[in-house]
Design a protein that fits this description.
Largest sheet: none
Number of helices: 4
Radius of gyration: 16 Å
Structural class: mainly alpha
Oligomer: single chain
Distance between the termini: 32 Å
Order of helices and strands: HHHH
Shape: elongated
Length: about 100
């Protein structure tokens, strides 16, 4: 488990639309479950050569997603976290077309 310092997070200036931490936990659990289900559905008929790029980009995307949390909440590196979000957005857009 990550040693997340929520005191640091609570000192950040956030939008008034930012939901509470409890909501984040529930929503991200649902998001990860649906992402995993989608990936299983995508590969359920076999991993073929034409799916290779989509799978590769997806694996990069999910790796960036897992990397973001410790970079932001543990290392408190907002600049690197922003770069990861930018790369996540690019891989997300690419995956929309590949899937």
């Amino acid at each position: 488990m990550l040693n997340i310092n929520y005191n640091w997070y609570n000192t950040l200036i956030k939008s008034s639309l930012t939901p509470s931490g409890g909501i984040f936990r529930i929503v991200w659990t649902i998001i990860y479950l649906t992402v995993i289900a989608s990936f299983i559905f995508f590969i359920s008929d076999g991993i073929r050569k034409e799916k290779a790029l989509a799978i590769f980009v997806f694996l990069i995307q999910i790796s960036l997603n897992f990397l973001w949390t410790p970079i932001f909440f543990v290392a408190h590196n907002v600049n690197l976290a922003f770069i990861i979000i930018f790369l996540l957005t690019l891989t997300l857009i690419l995956n929309i077309f590949l899937f």
